[in-house]
Amino acid sequence: MSDPQSVADPDAFDGALESVCFTGLAPGPKLLVLGAVHGNETCGPQAIRRAIADCRAGRLRIGRGAVTFVPVANPKAYRQGTREGDRNLNRDLHDKPVPLDYEDRVGNRLCALLRDHDALLDIHSFRSQGEPFVFFGPEDNAGDLEPFRQAAAEGAFAACLGAPTLIHGWLDNYARLISARERLGLPELSPSEGHGTTEYMRFCGGYGVTLECGNHEDPAAIEVGHGAILNALAHLGISGSAPPSRQARQVIRIVDLVICEQDGDRLEGSWKTGDAVAAGQPIARRASGDAVTAPSPGFIIFPSSSAKRGDGICYFGVASDRTL
Ligand SMILES: [Zn+2]
Questions:
Q1: Is the model's pLDDT at 122 over the cut of 80?
Q2: 4-248 is classed in which CATH architecture?
Q3: Is-contact 255 318, C-beta < 8 A?
Q4: Which fold has domain 253-319?
Q5: Which of 22, 25, 184, 282 is the most buried (most CB within 10 A)?
Q6: Beta partners for 298?
Q7: Does the pLDDT value for residue 1 go beyond 80?
Q8: Is the predicted pLDDT of residue 3 greater than 60, yes or no?
Q9: 6 — pLDDT class (breaks 50, 70, 90)
Q10: What band does 11 get if pLDDT is binned at 50, 70 and 90?
Q11: Is the dihedral of CA 113, 114, 120, 126 positive or negative?
């Protein structure tokens, strides 16, 4: 008999995907909680393992519907302590009948899990300092980019998790990044590159949010993640706990991005996501010395001090008119 590890698929033995499911005895919604979609973001696995222990010890009672915990969604990247295995798992997430890399293989299993649930809480952390925030999806629409009809349910879910800031407009902004790169003559990106776990969940008829718990190394990020799991389960009526109150204080719509046009373009100042800027305030500086200024009062989103040509130096958001 041949050694099973010598079969053609080199990644098949590169770490199984562990999922732990608790099913209530009464019918109800099914929540999926993911950690470590990015392998170096360890607050998710720690928060999720704590929630699993809570369920097993009876501190957290699952009475209705079900919750499935996946502490580590990208085992290869997690084992390596890196953001990615072969590539970013949170991009171009679709079913791949012919998987070409590790993330395609893990992605196929994750897509099946996502299709089998109603709501998704995807727990991440970030490199910079800053307060937790939640990414959520578009308004109800029948457009081509991201058709959706669960905006009210998703918004209420996002607002209960515990993070003070909610941000939307990701996929529209990805389209802006694609055109900006086109103007610079850089290799073309496909709009489907912008599809991660939450986008896939919405395409399947469910809804989902990305919780950014804080800095990768901050122990408080684990508390944020764990608190959000408890709030999500209470909000959906899956646990017997009293529903949490709405905790979000501000909603931001991403409306633009500052792209790195050439080496030497850089952020002006040390921004964090959610920092407010005044109209006309310099937010970045071109290699030529020209300032890039805020077009209106707004907020800095995802500032990057290591942006290369074609990357976003930062995104720009404004106060959203969405009511949740
Ligand atoms: Zn992440």
A1: yes
A2: 3-Layer(aba) Sandwich (3.40)
A3: yes
A4: OB fold (Dihydrolipoamide Acetyltransferase, E2P) (2.40.50)
A5: 22
A6: 277
A7: no
A8: no
A9: very low
A10: low
A11: positive
Rounded distance from Cα 301 to ligand 1 centre (Å): 14
In angstroms, rounded to a whole number, what is the distance separating the alpha carbons of residues 318 and 164? Answer: 16
- φ, ψ (nearest 5 deg) of residue 41: -105, 90
Q: How far apart are the first and last CA of the chain?
A: 60
As annotated, the residues of the chain forming the CATH 2.40.50.100 domain(s) are: 253-319
What is the distance between the alpha carbons of residues 312 and 314, in angstroms, rounded to a whole number? Answer: 5
- CA of 27 from ligand 1 middle (Å) equals 32
Whole-number Å distance, alpha carbon 75 to ligand 1 midpoint, is 14
Residue 113 in this model has a pLDDT that exceeds 60? yes
Using the mean position of ligand 1's atoms as its centre, give its distance from the Cα of residue 211 in Å.
Answer: 9
Stretch(es) of the chain classified as CATH 3.40.630.10? 4-248
Give me ligand 1 centre to Cα 126, in Å: 6
Which tokens hold the place of 66? 């079900």
Distance 308 CA to ligand 1 centre (A): 19
Which residue in 106, 66, 70 sits closest to 90, CA to CA? 106
Beta bridge partners of 266: 285
Quote the CA–CA distance of 177 and 313 in Å, as a whole number. 11
Distance 25 CA to ligand 1 centre (A): 34
Q: Ligand 1 centre from 241 Cα, in Å?
A: 29
The contacts found for 279-284 with CB under 8 angstroms, 24 or more apart, are: 283/258, 283/314, 283/316, 284/258, 284/313, 284/314
The DSSP-derived string for 238-288 is SBSSPPPPP---EEEEEEEEEE--STT-EESS---TT-EE-TT-EEEE-TT
Tell me, in angstroms, the distance from the centre of ligand 1 to residue 41's CA.
Answer: 6
pLDDT score recorded for residue 13: 64
CA of 24 to the centre of ligand 1 (A): 30
